[in-house]
TrEMBL record:
GO terms for molecular function: 2 iron, 2 sulfur cluster binding; metal ion binding; nitrite reductase [NAD(P)H] activity. GO terms for biological process: nitrate assimilation. Pfam families: Rieske_2. Keywords: 2Fe-2S, Heme, Iron, Iron-sulfur, Metal-binding, Nitrate assimilation, Oxidoreductase. It comes from the Bacteria. The lineage of its organism: Bacteria, Pseudomonadati, Bacteroidota, Saprospiria, Saprospirales. The keyword Metal-binding applies. The keyword Nucleotide-binding does not apply. It comes from Flavilitoribacter nigricans (strain ATCC 23147 / DSM 23189 / NBRC 102662 / NCIMB 1420 / SS-2). This is Nitrite reductase (NAD(P)H) small subunit. InterPro entries: NasD-like (IPR052034), Rieske-like_NirD (IPR012748), Rieske_2Fe-2S (IPR017941), Rieske_2Fe-2S_sf (IPR036922). PROSITE patterns: RIESKE. PANTHER family: NITRITE REDUCTASE (NADH) LARGE SUBUNIT (PTHR43809:SF1). Residues 19-121 form the Rieske domain.
Length: 125
């Protein structure tokens, strides 16, 4: 279990070495999430269409180690964009990965950029 979690490490924009071309913008649902695969990682990508913002995080919920966050409900806590796990509603900041309503470890988040109609997710390796 721990080994799976270790695959997911927070990546800041400054740490990006690879911009992975995930798919065309239209392939992603609006105001919801979708799952992409990069190497052996499952990454949840969220299109906050109302705010014209995109976020990415590990698909793995650290509560019961389920690959489900892409199916979570998105929203905001104040100014913080967040996702709620569809299983037991633990919520996480999509900016810092912090667990907002329990004491779970943070999830890894990844930078997203849109270029020429495509969605790119940034990885450090
Ligand atoms: S598995 Fe995500 S909150 Fe329980």
């Amino acid at each position: 279990m721990e080994a799976i979690l270790e695959q997911y490490k927070q990546v800041t924009e400054a740490q990006v070495k690879v911009w992975f071309k995930a798919a065309a913008v239209e392939a992603f649902p609006k105001n919801a999430g979708a799952c992409i695969k990069y190497r052996d990682k499952q990454i949840a990508v969220f299109n906050f269409a109302r705010k014209n913002k995109w976020y990415a995080c590990q698909n793995l919920c650290p509560h019961k180690m389920e690959m489900v966050l892409a199916r979570g409900l998105t929203g905001a806590e104040g100014d913080i964009p967040k996702v709620a796990c569809p299983l037991h509603k633990r919520t996480f900041s999509l900016e810092t990965g912090e667990n907002l309503n329990a004491d779970l470890p943070p999830i890894a988040t990844y930078p997203v950029k849109i270029q020429d109609g495509f969605v790119y997710v940034g990885f450090a390796e």
